[in-house]
Specification:
- By secondary structure, this protein is α/β, with parallel strands linked by helices.
- It is built from ten helices and twelve strands.
- An eight-stranded parallel barrel has the order 1-2-3-4-5-6-7-11, surrounded by four helices.
Length: 298
């Protein structure tokens, strides 16, 4: 089973991004996704620089995919999307149905990202016919739902024509909004946000009045407060036919997490233990913030 590195979801300075990906080239990760998926105002790297970086990383022999924006709200953003689809030197991850349409019309193979909302085998088959060669399961689906979709894909005769990827480690991307929550937190208007999210390289933790951790604010994106961790489910996913596990970049220790995911085997050696810092509830069709052990799930 392969391991992928998802796009950086946070707003990091340009040099930090360059240094991060140079470090990732030294890891055993198989596929690297890169690009801006959260907010078009984050312009530390221009579209041309993202595409140039993709070309550079692809020279290493690793698979590289350019990820597109998940929420488009202006004609300028659609124009940028068209430019990415036309000029990307590698495959594109479509995170919005408009990207699917553009790539399909051009006859280009693509990856369906988690925000394209594929919830059943019929939708998956439609995307495969449009040119999808891989799909990333929506993060809120359970393992049982995934198994059902893959079984139905097998019955419908197209399971071998599309790869399956599962978001397996990181803050879950839960929702996108036209409102910027980081700007709101700082009492700034969205149009004059001063690019404040660059000061929060791992987001802003939100707690309830009872001091329970709830969410992680990342500009217009709302994430889970805890890290979603499916390392313990690696063998189960492999038996289902999952092809790739996605790790979402974090500010520290991403390289070590990649190696841990690649090292763990069915005997579950070197496993990252579950703790209050992790959650996996969605996998078991429970509240996402829950932490469920394999024994509790029986």
């Amino acid at each position: 089973m392969k391991v992928s590195l998802g796009p950086i979801l946070f707003f990091w300075p340009k040099q930090k991004v360059f240094d991060f990906y140079e470090q990732m080239l030294q890891t055993s990760v198989d596929t690297i996704y890169l690009g801006e998926t959260v907010c078009s105002k984050r312009r530390e790297l221009s579209t041309a620089e993202w595409l140039e970086l993709a070309s550079h990383l692809a020279e290493s022999g690793k698979e590289v995919v350019v990820s597109s924006l998940a929420l488009l709200m202006a004609e300028s953003e659609l124009s940028t999307l068209r430019s990415i689809c036309e000029k990307a030197p590698v495959k594109v991850e479509a995170n919005d149905i408009s990207a699917v349409q553009i790539l399909s019309e051009k006859g280009l193979p693509f990856v369906c990202g988690p925000s394209t909302n594929i919830y059943n085998a019929r939708t998956l088959k439609l995307m495969q016919k449009q040119g999808a060669v891989r799909w990333v399961m929506p993060v809120e689906l359970s393992g049982h739902c995934l198994q059902t979709i893959l079984q139905q894909a097998e019955e419908m005769g197209f399971a071998d024509k599309i790869e399956t990827e599962v978001f397996s480690y990181g803050h879950l991307p839960l929702a996108f909004s036209a409102r910027c929550f980081t700007a709101r937190y700082l009492d700034l208007p969205k149009d004059n946000c001063k690019f404040s999210c660059i000061d929060y390289p791992e987001g802003i933790l939100v707690k309830s009045q009872e001091q329970q951790k709830l969410f992680n604010l990342n500009g217009v994106q709302t994430q889970s407060s805890d890290i979603y961790n499916l390392l313990a489910q690696k063998a189960e996913m492999q038996a289902m036919g999952v092809d790739m596990l996605r790790i979402s970049p974090v500010e520290e220790d991403t390289a070590q997490i990649i190696e841990r995911f690649n090292a763990v085997d069915q005997s579950k050696q070197n496993m990252i233990p579950l703790s209050d810092e992790f959650c996996n509830g969605y996998w078991y069709a429970k509240p996402g913030m829950d932490t469920v052990s394999e024994f509790d799930a029986i």
